[in-house]
Write a structure and sequence with these properties.
- There is one protein chain.
- The chain has 300 residues and is of the alpha+beta class.
- Helices cover 36% and strands 26% of the residues.
- The chain has helices at residues 5-11, 28-45, 61-66, 69-72, 87-99, 122-127, 171-191, 213-219, 248-253, 272-283, 292-299; strands spanning 15-20, 23-26, 51-54, 58-60, 79-83, 107-114, 137-146, 159-169, 197-200, 223-228, 237-246, 264-271.
- It has a seven-stranded mixed beta sheet.
- It is flat and about 60 Å long.
- The two termini are 39 Å apart.
- Bound molecules: adenosine-5'-triphosphate and zinc ion.
- The site of adenosine-5'-triphosphate has 18 residues, from strand 8, strand 11, strand 12 and helix 10.
C-alpha cells in the first residue's frame, strides 16, 4: 500500500497524530509555514486599514444559535458541556469513570460553542456599536474553527485556522471588496508558486435548512472558492473562499448603514492549514528545498 499524503506528513513530523482523525498537533516547521502565509495575507491586505480582532476558538452559544448553525449543520457542530453538579453527582462521575460507564450524564450545555466559521461572532459585536460609519467597516479576523468532519484527508481537519477580512457596508461596497480579493487571491496563489482556479462553490452557505437556497446561491454567485490541487488533482481543495451574504447578517443582527439601510456583508477566508498543505504537496516536505522565490515571499 502506498502511503497517503497524511501518512507522509506524520512520518516527516509536520503534523502529529493525536489518535483522532482531523485533530493534529503541528510542528515548528508547519507553524513556520503558517506564519509565512499569515504574513503574505497581511502584505496583500494590510494597507486597507482593517480593524484587527482575534477570537478564541469558542463563541457565545446564543450567537451560535441565532446564526442558525444547529438548524443548518447539526452534524458539524461542537458545543462545550460542563459539569455543574453537586458532590453526589461528582461521586457518580468518579464511579462511572472507574467502571467505564457513562460519566457524561451530569454534563450540561454551557454558554460556549466551538466557533465553526471565523466571522460568525463578529456581526453582533459590530452591530452593538450602532449604525456603520459613512464608509462602512472592514475587519481583519482570525479564529481556530471546529467542524466535526473527521477524515483521513489532511485537508479536512476538525480544528483549523481561518483568517478572514470582513466588509460591512452598502451592496456596492461589499461587492467591490469581494472582487478585489478574488483578484488578490489569484495573485497570492502565484506568489506561493501554486496553481489555483477560482470557481463558483456548490455547497450551500446557509446549510441544510438553506438547501433550497443552493441553486439560488449559484445563480446569484454568492460564493466563490480558490481551488488548489492538494489531495487530488480531480478534486481540488477549497483553500480560500469569497462570500457575499447579501443582507443575511445585517438583517439577523440589525446592522445598518449610516443612512439607516440594512447593511450588506461579505467575507474572504484563508484556510491556513489548507494553504500550508498545498505548499507542502506542491513544493515537497523539505521546506529548505522550496523554490527561492516562494521562500522569499513567505519569509522575506
Ligand atoms: P468544504 O466545502 O471543503 O467543506 P467550505 O466551503 O465549507 O469547505 P468555508 O466555510 O468557506 O469552507 O470555510 C472557509 C475556509 O476554511 C475554506 O476555504 C478552507 O480553506 C477552510 N476550511 C473549511 N473547512 C475546513 C476543514 N475541515 N479543514 C481545514 N480547512 C477548512
Ligand atoms: Zn466569513
Amino acid at each position: 500500500m502506498t502511503a497517503t499524503f497524511l501518512d507522509r506528513l506524520f512520518d516527516a513530523g509536520l503534523l502529529i497524530d493525536t489518535g483522532v482523525d482531523g485533530l493534529y498537533a503541528r510542528s515548528g516547521t508547519f507553524e513556520h509555514i503558517v506564519d509565512g502565509i499569515d504574513a503574505v495575507v497581511t502584505a496583500f491586505g494590510g494597507a486597507d486599514g482593517a480593524e484587527v480582532v482575534r477570537f478564541p476558538p469558542g463563541m457565545n452559544r446564543m450567537v451560535f444559535e441565532k446564526t442558525g448553525y444547529m438548524k443548518n449543520f447539526p452534524n458539524l457542530a461542537g458545543t462545550v458541556h460542563c459539569f455543574c453538579g453537586d458532590d453526589a453527582a461528582h461521586a457518580d462521575i468518579i464511579a462511572a469513570l472507574d467502571e467505564g460507564g457513562d460519566w457524561a450524564a451530569h454534563q450540561k450545555l454551557s454558554d460556549i460553542a466551538l466557533t465553526p466559521a471565523a466571522c460568525y461572532p463578529l456581526y453582533p459585536l459590530a452591530a452593538r456599536r450602532g449604525p456603520l460609519p459613512a464608509q462602512g467597516r472592514l475587519f481583519d479576523i482570525l479564529s481556530y474553527c471546529f467542524r466535526r468532519e473527521p477524515s483521513k484527508e489532511s485537508t479536512r481537519q476538525q480544528m483549523f485556522r481561518m483568517r478572514e477580512f470582513v466588509r460591512m457596508g452598502t451592496p456596492d461596497e461589499v461587492m467591490a471588496f469581494r472582487q478585489l480579493w478574488i483578484e488578490r487571491g489569484a495573485e497570492m496563489v502565484k506568489t506561493f508558486g501554486l496553481d489555483g482556479a477560482v470557481d463558483l462553490a456548490n455547497d450551500p452557505f446557509f446549510g441544510r435548512a438553506g438547501r433550497m437556497l443552493k441553486n439560488n446561491q449559484r445563480q446569484q454567485n454568492l460564493k466563490f472558492e480558490m481551488l488548489i490541487p492538494v489531495e487530488s488533482v480531480e478534486k481540488p481543495t477549497a483553500c480560500m473562499s469569497f462570500n457575499y451574504h447579501q443582507d443575511h447578517f445585517g438583517t439577523l443582527w440589525n446592522l445598518t448603514t449610516a443612512d439607516g439601510a440594512v447593511a450588506h456583508t461579505a467575507c474572504v477566508g484563508f484556510g491556513f492549514e489548507r494553504l500550508a498543505l498545498a505548499l507542502l504537496k506542491v513544493h515537497g516536505l523539505d521546506v529548505a528545498a522550496w523554490p527561492a522565490g516562494v521562500r522569499a515571499a513567505l519569509w522575506g
